[in-house]
């Protein structure tokens, strides 16, 4: 005998999916230390005076986008295009690998970096430093 509708298993009404824990662990906003405190934040300031907060472990470009500022040009977000090139005037950061065609060794020593490939370890002062793009040549 078939059960009436009211006796059937209740329908699942909340179909939202939670992000896997591995994804959340990569998000600095989610992470907290054993004491339950929020991660450190660093103040990122441009020469113009505009500034935003960047969480520990967060890439500078991502923090700027989260703050809804448009001070750095946004491209691929992975270091391949060089659109987010900046010069670090003050402060320290951890650097991920960057293509030498966007930031060579001499430029890196002078403080140049791609904002999508750096995470601050102190407050920082930045200058926008996008290279002038070379126009593509058409093949004959």
UniProtKB/TrEMBL annotation:
Organism: Rhodobium orientis
Domain of life, per lineage: Bacteria
Domain 2Fe-2S ferredoxin-type: 42-132
Record-level Gene Ontology MF annotations: 2 iron, 2 sulfur cluster binding
Protein name: 2Fe-2S ferredoxin-type domain-containing protein
Pfam families: Fer2
CDD domains the record matches: fer2
Coiled-coil residue windows: none
InterPro entries: 2Fe-2S_ferredoxin-like_sf (IPR036010), 2Fe-2S_ferredoxin-type (IPR001041), 2Fe2S_fd_BS (IPR006058), Beta-grasp_dom_sf (IPR012675)
SUPFAM superfamilies recorded: 2Fe-2S ferredoxin-like (SSF54292)
């Amino acid at each position: 005998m078939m059960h009436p509708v009211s006796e059937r298993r209740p329908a699942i009404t909340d179909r939202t999916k939670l992000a896997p824990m591995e994804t959340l662990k990569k998000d600095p906003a989610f992470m907290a230390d054993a004491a339950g405190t929020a991660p450190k934040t660093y103040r990122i300031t441009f020469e113009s005076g505009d500034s935003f907060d960047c969480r520990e472990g967060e890439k500078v470009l991502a923090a700027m986008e989260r703050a809804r500022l448009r001070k750095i040009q946004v491209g691929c977000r992975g270091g391949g295009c060089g659109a987010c090139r900046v010069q670090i005037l003050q402060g320290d950061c951890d650097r991920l690998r960057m293509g030498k065609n966007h930031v060579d060794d001499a430029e890196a020593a002078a403080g140049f970096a791609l904002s999508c490939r750096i995470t601050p370890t102190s407050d920082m002062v930045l200058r926008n430093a996008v290279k002038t793009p070379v126009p593509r040549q058409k093949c004959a």
